Amino acid sequence: MITLAHISDIHLSPLPQVGLSDLVGKRITGFLNWKLKRHGEMNVGTLASLVAHMQAQNADFTAVTGDLTNLALDSEVERAGKWLENLGDSERVAVCPGNHDAYVPGALENAQNLWGKYLTGETIEGQPFPFVRRVGEVAIVSCSSAVPTPPFMAIGRFEEKQASRLARILKILGDAGYFRVVLIHHPPNAELQHPSFGLKGHRIFRQVIADNGAELILHGHTHRSSIHHIPGKNHEVPVIGVAAASAAQGGTLDDPARYNLFRIEKSGDGWECVMREFGFQRLGSEIVMRMQMRIY
Question: Would the pTM count as exceeding 0.90?
């Protein structure tokens, strides 16, 4: 049996000291949004409590589906690297980047340099994404939808070249009998698309899954707990989102901070997978198990 933890949208706070020279282009609007609204919604104490609870579960592997930073300032990216080290060894933790990690041109490349092995794995064609981590009979496939965007936009992109690589990877892993978990920051299902913060290329992504199959897709971005499905090769594939890990109780925009824990086990020719969601309720100060659901 393999246990897989899923956490997302870390949004480490507070913002570091920001100079006037930092507030160029999109970072101006992002800084104002943080000061006027988000600084009260994202709480470092909430995040610390949630992570401590998750670490006590001693999962075999932890998937982080992006947005570790807010404005992708150099100091933020460096701090996020240290946070990852405290989360766990890079052999047991993998990241797929979010739009805030690629907030401006060059930011994602900086994160790749500083976060190192947390953003790497087995790849094909010498390209960084998708990359694969294998834990027993479970394969975690990390894609990237993170691209810089204009102000007031938070879209992601998933293009043909990455789709082609993902298709090959899923086929290889499927033929080898792995339980395939695909990570992507932006949700790929049609229900959660929006012109200003959806995934450009969501149809391409879904076609890859329909043609090659997968067992589970995990995402962040919406700051909401959600469960959807998209067509797969042999069965519907669950698409599961998780609330932002630093979302404080009493926030007006998001579900309170949560994480998901999956227990995955081979059963004859198939799989057993049970998901448990842990986190804060809107009322009360304790982290509780909010839901348990059998997926397979």
Answer: yes
